[in-house]
Amino acid sequence: MAETPSQRLHARDLLAPSAFFLGALLLAGAIALGPVVGASLKKIPLDVDVTWVADGSDGARVLNRCSIDEPRAQVLDAQVQQRRRIVAVRPADSDVVTLQAGTSFGVSKYQVDGESVDADDVCDTETLSATIDRVTIDRRTALPTGQPSEVQYDDTKAAVPLPDRTGFTYVLPFEFAGSDLTYFDIVSRTPVPLTREGTQTVAGRKTVHLATSVEDADLSRVDTRAVITRPASWFGSFPGVRADEPLTAALRYSAQRDLFVDETTGVVVDERVRLVEEYRFTPDIASRSPELADFRLTNVDTTLHSDPQSLQDAADIASARDWPVTLTTLILPIVFGVLGVASLLVGVVVTLRDRRKRR
Description:
- Keywords: Membrane, Transmembrane, Transmembrane helix.
- This protein is of the alpha+beta class and 359 residues long.
- Helices cover 29% and strands 39% of the residues.
- It has six helices and 16 strands.
- Strands 1, 2, 3, 4, 5, 6, 7, 8, 11, 12, 13, 14, 15 and 16 form a 14-stranded antiparallel β-sheet that branches. The chain has a two-stranded antiparallel ribbon with strand order 9-10.
- Helix 1 runs antiparallel to helix 6 (308-358).
């Protein structure tokens, strides 16, 4: 059935109001999309699953664990590696998410008499340390919420609660800012300040370089396994000390950590760690002579660097988190704004044309 002149006139009369309505709607969407939708996306996601692998530097030194039961301590050059997997677990909701980080540090090869030897051919204890850390954080601030946080150092013992935990560890918030940032060091269980060292492009992402350090922490304060008692001859030879006299040493720890954090999403793209652990005699023993006070026995001495795959994976995660925010706060508002203005212009043109025709 053919359209009548009155129907065509009615459709033309509705064109201008429809164009004005659509334009206003698009402009309202352009204004509201970023603050409403974009802001809601600036959270730590609930599907976190990140693997980080770091290789030790050449010349890393490690105490051979099997030499603990031998007559003398043995420190060897070694190839070491640290692996960490971070996953989101419960409790988790629109406001908080719990991160569980399993970290292991082990030896793949030792240098024995100038030759590279598989670790299991030297000692069947290839894993030197392992922890499972759980912390519930606010999805916007990435800071601990005060809900139970705990770390487990030994699979035969219960986890240790960390009720007063503060600072960032595995992730920072979207668009983080401020100069008073704090890092929580899980080994020493202490918060330490983060300092900004500039910016650097890592795996194609612009990152903020944050540095922190832990100086000479006594690990025997937080871990009973960090104390060792052996005959004096196991440690070495000391004036005035019988070879069979039991001596006790505690593990001391220091670390310099460099984090390269994506400045948009808070994802840690790269992490480099200078790690030194050494046994020193307890104060009552060290006070007996300068030789005992100056004694150091290396447990671990290495610098850890992220492997290429970890760098690329972290950069891809940062890009994946950044894209929805960029889409809703920049791209779509521009598109909606342009279309809204175009729709309003159409309404103006149609209105002026109709007025001329009426005249």
